[in-house]
Amino acid sequence: MSAIIEVPGPGANVAVLRKERGWGQDRLAAAAGISKSLLGKIERGERALTQGVAASLARALGLSLEAVLGTAPVQREAEARLRALNGAVRRFDLPREPEMTEAELRAALDRMVGLRGSADLRGVLDGLPGLVSAATNHAHAVGTPEAWAMVAEAYSTVYWLAARHRWMILADLAVTKQKLAAQQADPLTLAIAARDEAGVHLNHGDFEDGLAVVERGLVQVEQTAVSGPDRAYALGILHLRGLTLAGRLRDRATADQHIARAWQLSSEFDRDVNRLGIHFGPQNTAVHAVATFADLGRHQRAIDTVADLERLRRQRGLVLPETRTSPLHMNAARSRLALDDRDGALEELETAWSIAPQMARVHPTAQELLRVLTSLHKRSNPRLTRLARQANVPF
Length: 395
Fold this sequence. Notes:
mainly alpha, 21 helices
């Protein structure tokens, strides 16, 4: 059973889980393939626990990744909506009479894309149970590829919501249903399903399996008749997933290959395109590259890439959704902290919280950075105190 994180961050779980097994730091560090010094710093709150190291620790302890990272708690007022969503997912093969027209469904899905882009997790959860049921019922009734593509889109959002909270049973079910729907839709929808399937492996810490799913998805796209911008988009979103997985695995060669290919494909777009809530283009490629550079320990390059992205956005008047900009600043904070720029890390974390507070509250990176910053500051810092109060963290 995974822990429920009430107070940041996931690194606080490590010592608890280790001691439950009666293990010393020497044993866990050796089993996880990390140094005892690093493990000690993580447990004391002097170093942030990355998801790559968390996956190594989880494997060593015989646990799931979410057991180490912790799952986000379900607020009491959201319990009924989550039960309703699980019920809608279970009824995938038990259709009822359609309650929405195709036009009404398209409008509802577009509203959901907006909620997802603004990182309104509560709004997404509120709307998903009815939307999943309506899309599924409609697809069973009409049976067209377009209808099944809408089902796959709805389930992609279920996966997105579940992954944000690390509700991994729901995430697993969502991508299974998404793939079934996508197989009755079109190649582009199938590529998005492959991206999300690889994402589940990412969230479980099974990085090599996730890369295998990405490679299979890339081959499938190459073998279809998809061309032009759709082809660049389909390949691009898979390469973004690939570079993230390779970064978590600390496989520099594979990560660099995916980064290079993603940049090449993104050059076919003047600005990011949004298909079904998933962005691809020069901005989102930069966002993913920043996170991967941080995973690979290339922290100055991550900071430089953030600066390049900011210049690009100013020059072209570009806008990124909150669901992308908040994690961008979280990863910039990771790299600034690694470079011993605590004030810069705090500023980036404050920005991440101001952009998407609902996401920051449940995101393991935001939780862990706040834990480390509060641990490292030996004297009162008014800005950090305010942020800790916003996150309900004693400081």
